[in-house]
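Q: What structure does this chain adopt?
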Amino acid sequence: MFEKDWTKMFYKKLQDNNLKIAIVGLGYVGLPLALAFAKKYEVYGFDVDKNKIGMLNKAQSYIVDVSSEDLIKFLHKSFYPSADDNILDKADAIFITVPTPVHVDGSPNMDYVISASQTVAKHLKSGKLVVLESTVYPGATREVVIPILETSGLKAGTNFGVVFSPERVTPGNKEYSVEKMPKVVGGMDNESTELAYILYSSVLEAPVIKVSNCKTAEAVKVLENTFRFINISLVNELAMVFENMGIDIWEVIKGASSKPIGFMPHYPGPGIGGHCIPVDPLFLLYKIRRYDLDSNFIEMARKINTIMPLHMVNLVEYGLRKFGKELRDSNVLVAGVAYKPEVNDSRESPAFDIIEELEYSGAKVQFYDPYIDRIYIKGKEFQGLKSIGIKELMHYDAIVLATNHKALVTQLKELLPKLEKSVVVVDGRNSLDTREIRKKHTYLCIGKPRGEI
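A:
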């Protein structure tokens, strides 16, 4: 099965259960992956953030999907976190799980991947397998990562193997944890792919799917999220159109979903946030343009999603007219700033753009999120409310639901009907449409007929 010397060495350690693993980057991807491997292997976790390492060594988790109880099971038994990159010397398989954001112009920011690859190269020895999980554009593993690793003096494919396996972490989703999410692996050669397949299969409950090479595996990830990006953009555009046509898009989607084949429901919202969906299509677009080609779909979808936060603000302004108020000097509460429910992650959250646009229009803005106490928008700090009650809500002229955390929605459904005054309620998630709220307040929702104000 394995002919090269390095692959024989690696496979023997796998068979003898003597393999040691290192994870470079202990964020929302790396930490759950480290604990999944720690169930069977000795795992060394490296991160440059000393605060994170300090918390981990005290069994304090900073990731929603990893509890402190989970950490205690493996900490200093089979999982060893450190800010010293020399621990990479001990590992046979090294996984790179660092962030891959984009620059302001939408081009990929590969700084973290480059830095992590340089760190790994310092500790690379014959017989090791390097797996990149960070999302990149198709071709990046061969064009960026492998040349850096080869500065070690070793030759990829001859002395060590390289694989790309896209992370598919869905924060807050307990049904599909790391162990239960199907995994795709594509190596620089067949032997690298096979070793990664065996290694992942030894700890995952879900199937591991082999593809022909790194570039194909890289394309798998960007296709997945470009598909979602474009389809969410479609329903966002139709939501705005249907509002003016007097049609409820939520009812339309429900009706269309009754067709058992050929339709996959996607839902409108105040914009697309998070670490993947709004970013990954830009990686693909970057690579497409390097071939002197373009993608009208991605460009159009990007434009539509860029205007959704502004549309939310327009709904606030529209509702305030009922009270003869202008947006300027109105008090507005943005409820929820995480990019999705039940997480404390605000990366690329559309709530940021909503707050920025409200402030630009002269509104006085505050936010409340049960998971997040402060945010920074272009360097400016916003301190969130510690709690909300009748007294707090009485201060506002408009309340904007940007993120539908379950507890937050429950609170608002309970509190809003009890307010002694009427306010504008702008619902970006179709979560507050109750008879009691409509009766008491001016209720507006993305994708629902506005009615007469």
